[in-house]
Amino acid sequence: MNGFPTTARTVVVTGGTGGLGTAVTGHLLDAGWRVVVPWFDPAEADRLDAHPGLELLRADLSSEADVETLIARAAGDDARPLTGVVNLVGGFHSGSRVHETPVDVLDAQLSINVRIAYLVTQAALPELIRRGGGSVVCIGSAAATRPFPGAAGYIASKAAVAALVQSLAVEYTADNIRVNGIVPSMIDTPANRLAMPGADTSTWARPADIAEVIAFLLSDASRAVTGASIPVTGSSAAG
Q: For 236, left (φ over 0), alpha (ψ -120 to 50), or beta?
């Protein structure tokens, strides 16, 4: 990346109001980043406390126009240039085998898990190139290589995220843009605890730990890392 110190950089965090995203956003704010977080549901914006480095922007990330507006906002502060993109928006569906599942489920999983990451990254790339480089982080899933029954659409979409990461890394290495994926298993979020009451959460990956990995991938300390899918699985390889 370029020579800007972390305290003079901007990062976009999609999904920054979610169970994982709030931890990532908070960690990056504490590290001195200017963090631009899109939201769609008004209740989402209330999940983040006010902070001088935080900027919230209402956006429908399925809309190319809204994504362009988001990136323009993030790139609008020359004193704190946009050098990072963290794609955390995602969705999950399970419960039925392929022959029992409408193809609309696959379309929805590909849209939320792959298309949005593609659109946001696509919009940010010209600015990252103009600034001399940057770092993009996407969220995959351990299920992409260790599938389980009943979630073929989700698993296929997360496998596509891994392929997108590798493709982007190859295409933009000459532009000094690094692209990496984090590959969590079960994440210890309120939503997952609610969905699985009684589960042993001691083996789940903590959002705060994942946030530290993402911060590393955004930093100059990871300047030699690109095209990687990095497991972030807590103390367990299951998930």
A: beta
